[in-house]
């Protein structure tokens, strides 16, 4: 596995420390660590204009590469994959007599992907992955592959919820070897393909993200079984995952060459799920008409013409109410899908 985490002492910064850029003289007060990986540590810091995320690393080549990726992301029209790049500088750390490169980026506040779907419902997996596939399609058209795509690198923020990527360290130019990966989401680990940077590599990872939604503890590859066959068995073993069976199997088998192809099939799968469940936008609209007589009172038979008219009027009003609810909810869904397209 290429993304084993290491935390350099030079990159280990205590809360309260002020990092001042050598060249631009901008200062950032460290509040807490947001995470660390093979190529540095990301901190939540306080800047004059608010909270920002700062990544520091001894590996200047890695910093330069990630900065270039963020610059590239900013040129991908309509994409919200990565955070905005705000500053790039060096920090002269006197206690180690070293100059350490860092860059500052937008701080994206929200829940990570798995926490969000756990709180809001797993039916959100399809909607969020539709967003993700839209952004990946734009990225792939620019000649890049995200690479280390996994729930840990995905944040859901804003209203309406929008999925964002927060770690671009694995982003690779198409045709090269993947720089970083995490076994569970790596098709090479499952024997489902090479680690060559191409769109189908990311699309395999998207399928694994959906699988991870329903198997949050994940599962290792069995040594006595082919990886792809094991994944197919896990999909069929879960009733909810079976609803996405066609999309997942196509991605695992590498049949999608473009993110737009997988997105098209995922839209069809979500539409089919909604029709089968009677849900609109994840909201159950089935009306249950139950009549319960008041306690200690007999049920009266309504046989007069007046009582029949009242009953018919009541039923008509209930039907109209339900129809209005359906129309409002359907309009809301059209609005949401319009935002995603």
Mind telling me the CATH class of the largest domain?
Mainly Alpha
How many E-type strands?
13
Approximate shape = elongated
Number of domains: 3
Descriptive terms for the model:
single chain, 341 residues, alpha+beta, Phosphorylase Kinase, domain 1, Transferase(Phosphotransferase), domain 1, 3 domains, six-stranded antiparallel β-sheet, three-stranded antiparallel β-sheet, 8 helices, elongated
What does this structure look like?
By secondary structure, the chain is an alpha+beta fold. The protein has a 6-stranded antiparallel sheet with strand order 1-2-3-4-6-5, covered by helices on one side. The two termini are 35 Å apart. It has 8 helices and 13 strands. Helices cover 38% and strands 19% of the residues. It is elongated, with a radius of gyration of 26 Å. Helix 3 packs antiparallel against helix 4 (199-214), helix 3 (124-141) packs antiparallel against helix 7 and helix 4 (199-214) crosses helix 6 (245-252). The model is unreliable at 1-6, 280-311 and 320-328 (pLDDT under 50). It folds into 3 domains: 18-106, Phosphorylase Kinase, domain 1 (2-Layer Sandwich); 111-277, Transferase(Phosphotransferase), domain 1; 317-341.
